[in-house]
Design brief:
Length: 447
């Protein structure tokens, strides 16, 4: 920004006109105006540098400032920025990306539908699940079971699947037919039969009314909660036994975040549908989608005219977004970044584990380059620390680290404030080590 006046004018105009996601003026008195980025670093309008500890919103996985993606977008835009991809029309980047995704993801998957973001991907997955059961003559199978602390986006049906009541409060009622069960959360519910909670709810609701179970392999925005080791194998078995589709929300975990291309591979499990977004383009352009199993794909491909798949969106299969995704995959593969995410994740988690001696650090957990530090008032009772996270992040920002807090809420399912970390895969070893140092200083400053 050229002058301080220009910067304060910009902020004033922002405050006058721009409605932000999670808008709340008290949290927006001194917004960070980012102007440049390079690798894992962001620079603000006053020249200060920060480690982008959450890869912005868990998504700038190849790091900031990658000219290759700008060039891929420009080249595609010059030739053909966009054209319809409705049945009867297609374009090469969308086709090439679909075939590449099917090669990369679980072996049982066969078809891809493209969206422009995470919530739209989940909405699409719910509709495909309903569609599949209607194609099989079971139109009563419509409900979606998801989990407390899960985050699936905040359009109306995705919001209804999201298991954090704070997102529902001012937008109720939620869509009928969305049911929540507790997740696998070893710190707060050690030894709890989490997968069995799915079986219990299926028996209570009647499996003949349920279309699908939806879960993030590692809960992200809800507080970075990796499951117990046997959880998803049991979930897969229960879904099969009760004839329920299993939708994996891999909007954060997809494309390498946990050290494997897709996260259920950690436990040898295959879902029926996969929602993805974020990392598919490393956020350089908006793109998401749903991958489906061969069986579901067959139901779409072989439908009679009166049951055709009447789901659509203008920007499905957007040529430029798909071209950028292909260039992003070239970088992930060419620079071996998925392996790097796994290796640096181990280093980040080890660094964060050293914070356990602090009196408010109740739990430290993670999988790959996705880690969480849960703050408590009392380590013995695990009483959640609420409000501390925001103060810690303000201290961290002063010291050049950006991250996000999953804030626990009074009266909701207990969880302390969680410091969420998921930096770009290109972060350096020194920057990884700096994250734990800054958090130690910041937490200590708040005690
Ligand atoms: C797991 C998960 N699902 C869905 C979403 C929603 O994605 P979007 O914000 O692109 O709608 C998010 C966003 O953070 C997410 O983390």
């Amino acid at each position: 920004m050229e002058t301080r006046t220009a910067l304060s004018d910009l902020i004033e105009s922002d405050q006058a006109h721009l409605i932000h996601p999670l808008h709340f003026p008290a949290e927006h008195t001194a917004p960070l105006v980012a102007v440049e980025g390079s690798g894992a670093l962001l620079r603000d309008a006053e020249g200060r540098e920060y480690i982008d500890g959450l890869a912005s919103l868990w998504n700038v996985n190849i790091g900031h400032g990658r000219a290759e993606l700008a060039e891929a977008a420009a080249a595609q835009m010059r030739r053909l920025a966009y054209t319809a991809a409705y049945a009867g029309f297609t374009n090469e980047p969308a086709v090439r990306l679909a075939e590449r995704l099917i090669r990369l993801a679980y072996a049982n998957l066969s078809g891809v539908y493209f969206t422009t973001g995470g919530a739209e991907s989940n909405e699409t997955a719910f509709k495909i699940a309903r569609y599949y059961w209607k194609r099989h003559g079971r139109p009563e199978k419509t409900k979606i079971i998801s989990r407390i602390h899960g985050y699936h986006g905040v359009t109306l049906a995705a919001m209804s699947a999201t298991g954090m009541p704070i997102f529902h409060r001012m937008f109720a009622p939620t869509v009928p037919g969305f049911v929540h069960i507790p997740p696998s959360y070893p710190y707060r519910y050690p030894g709890a039969p989490a997968a069995e909670a799915l079986e219990a709810v299926l028996q209570a609701e009647g499996p003949e009314t349920v279309a699908a179970f939806l879960a993030e392999p590692v809960i992200g925005a809800g507080g970075v909660i990796p499951p117990a080791a046997d959880y998803f194998r049991k979930i897969r078995e229960i879904c099969a036994r009760y004839e329920i589709l299993f939708i994996a929300d891999e909007i954060i975990t997809g494309f390498g975040r946990t050290g494997l291309w897709f996260a259920l591979d950690h436990w040898g499990v295959q879902p029926d549908l996969v929602s993805f977004a974020k990392g598919v383009t490393s956020a350089y352009l908006p793109l998401g989608g749903v991958m489906v199993s061969g069986e579901i794909h067959g139901a779409i491909r072989e439908a009679p005219p009166e049951q055709r798949f009447m789901h659509a969106a203008t920007y499905s299969g957007h040529a430029t977004c798909c071209a950028v995704a292909l260039a992003n995959l070239d970088i992930l593969e060419g620079e071996n970044l998925v392996r790097r995410a796994g290796l640096l994740g181990v280093r980040l988690l080890a660094g964060l584990q050293t914070l356990r001696d602090l009196p408010v650090v109740g739990d430290v957990r993670g999988l790959g380059l996705m880690c969480g530090v849960e703050l408590v008032e009392d380590k013995t009772t695990k009483a959640p620390a609420l409000g501390l996270g925001v103060r810690v992040m303000a201290e961290a920002r002063k010291r050049g680290l950006l991250a996000r807090i999953r804030g626990g809420q009074k009266g909701e399912h207990p969880i302390g404030d969680v410091i969420c970390l998921s930096p770009p895969f290109v972060i350096t070893e020194a920057q990884v080590d700096r994250i734990a140092e800054v958090l130690r200083e910041s937490i200590t400053a708040c005690l």
